[in-house]
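Write out this protein's structure.
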Amino acid sequence: MNLTSYVQDRQLTIALRGEIDHHAAREIMQALSAKIDLYLPLRCILDFRDVTFMDSSGIAVVIHTLRRMNTLQGRLLLQNIPPQPYKVLRAAGIEKITEIREECNR
């Protein structure tokens, strides 16, 4: 799993790539926490555009990031989610606890 990030005006955008499964989830959560701790953003955007597969471990990644942002009194936004990860997130009811912006049409 590779990720790319950039910060502008206390908004941290993190583009996730590859598969989010139980093998990658711990590493992803550690990387996300490190980025959030470094930049202390008011808003964190997770961009799923290049995520090729996600299982329930992806839900743990989102919840972990949401909890970290809540401790900073910040917001989490998910965007550009391809159909397969979108189904996993919808099945978990993620849209009830954080904002989802536009699903990718792949």
